[in-house]
Amino acid sequence: MTANAPSPALSSISFNADGLVAAIAQQHNTGEVLMLAWMNAESVEETLRTGQVCYFSRSRGKLWRKGETSGQIQSLVEMRIDCDGDALLLLVDQKGVACHTGRRSCFYTAMRDGKLTEIAAPSVDPEILYNRT
Amino acid sequence: MTANAPSPALSSISFNADGLVAAIAQQHNTGEVLMLAWMNAESVEETLRTGQVCYFSRSRGKLWRKGETSGQIQSLVEMRIDCDGDALLLLVDQKGVACHTGRRSCFYTAMRDGKLTEIAAPSVDPEILYNRT
């Protein structure tokens, strides 16, 4: 494969009508599921090329290089594709926290005893993450 | 909460335009990510009520009680909701295999050395799963 050839991953991915595929980020050595986000073909290619995870932000309508503002980057350890090609599993090494709330994982709210329960507190103040000097 | 009251989970979930939310299934005690599927409000309610995971099949356009054909059921250990409510993490106890190909996880194809590589073989013949007598 030359540097500019499309990755074979792309031919196995079934992007949806918006050109996106769901991507789960999992900390490679602990198994913790950190977040779910979306990728387009360009962000898949960039992620594989650079080894730094790049998503597609649906709200901003553009590439989202994880950590570009907060510094909380995700280094790709391995990309996996599911059986029907419409979901990716990204094994990553997460620097700091994955969640914009300052928590390690975005999945910090659990249903317990019929109630929504916060099961993790922020480990860093989001103000610090997004107003770095 | 009475038996028929809507779960508080529902008010925290941002279903998409099709009334669906992405749900990651993870084996609760090993951390293995098994699959990604979709749920609607009814399947979320049923899953919480029965403790057996029920998805919504986009291809069949109806509730999909995981394992109803194959016997490979998922028992819910805990449901978690992400920070913006548009993804669920289901900690489950998977009976047998999650994937219709007979593999434990649907994420059995990895990008390694620039190539797609199958990293897990079926542990059960799908013929046996879907043609049970």
Element order, helices and strands of chain A? Answer: HEEHEEEEEEH
Q: How many β strands of chain A by DSSP?
A: 8
Uncertain runs of chain A are: none
Largest sheet of chain A: 4 strands, mixed
Which descriptor suits the 3D outline of chain A?
A: globular
Largest interface: A-B, 40 and 40 residues
- Strand order within the widest sheet of chain A? 2-1-6-5
Helical proportion of chain A, percent range: 10-25%
Content-based structural category of chain A: alpha+beta
- CATH homologous superfamily (4th level) name of the domain at 8-100 in chain A: Phosphoribosyl-AMP cyclohydrolase
State the oligomer. homodimer
Find the CATH topology of the domain at 8-100 in chain A. Answer: Ubiquitin-like (UB roll)
Count of discrete alpha- or pi-helical segments spanning 4 or more residues of chain A: 3
- What's the level 1 CATH class of the domain at 8-100 in chain A? Alpha Beta
> Strand content of the residues of chain A, in percent?
25-35%
What is the CATH architecture descriptor of the domain at 8-100 in chain A?
Answer: Roll
How large, in whole angstroms, is the Cα Rg of chain A?
16 Å
Mean pLDDT of chain A: 94
How far is the N terminus from the C terminus of chain A? 41 Å
